[in-house]
Amino acid sequence: MTAYMITYDLNSEGQNYNKVIESIKNSGSSWCTYWKSSYLIKSSLTPNQIANNIEPYLDSNDRLIVIEVKNNYQGWLTKEQWKFIRENIFN
């Protein structure tokens, strides 16, 4: 399985955030979100497959990136958040 960062911007009013979020969560075996409009997931899918799962809920002016991430990171999160990421995303 591979770790991915998914980030999106829904730029039109009335977007179906719930369907976008559900598609992201269903694309991985585990996921976390500690940021607005961004998720870390662990998945056996390819970036194209993940994007294809989300695409039906996007408009042409929305933005999406699905990018592989490695176990080489730094940032400002709580100890519990880092623990979850180490144990569920990068294990």
Describe the protein's architecture and organization.
The protein has a 4-stranded antiparallel β-sheet, sandwiched between helices. It has helices at residues 17-26, 47-54, 79-88; strands at residues 2-9, 30-35, 38-43, 63-68. It is of the alpha+beta class. It has a single domain (2-88), classed as Alpha-Beta Plaits (2-Layer Sandwich). The model has no long low-confidence stretch (mean pLDDT 92).
CATH topology: Alpha-Beta Plaits
Proportion in helices = 25-40%
Helices, by number, come to 3
Q: Tell me the count of domains.
A: 1
Strand segment tally: 4
Strand order of the largest sheet: 2-3-1-4
Main beta-sheet strand count, sense and barrel state = 4 strands, antiparallel
> At CATH's second level, what is the architecture?
2-Layer Sandwich
Q: What best-fitting shape do the alpha-carbon axes yield? A: globular
Low-confidence stretches: none
Please report which band the strand proportion falls in: under 5%, 5-15%, 15-25%, 25-35%, 35-45% or over 45%.
Answer: 25-35%
Q: Gyration radius, to the nearest Å?
A: 13 Å
Which structural category fits the helices and strands? Answer: alpha+beta
What's the order of the H and E elements?
EHEEHEH
Distance between the termini: 9 Å
- CATH top level is Alpha Beta
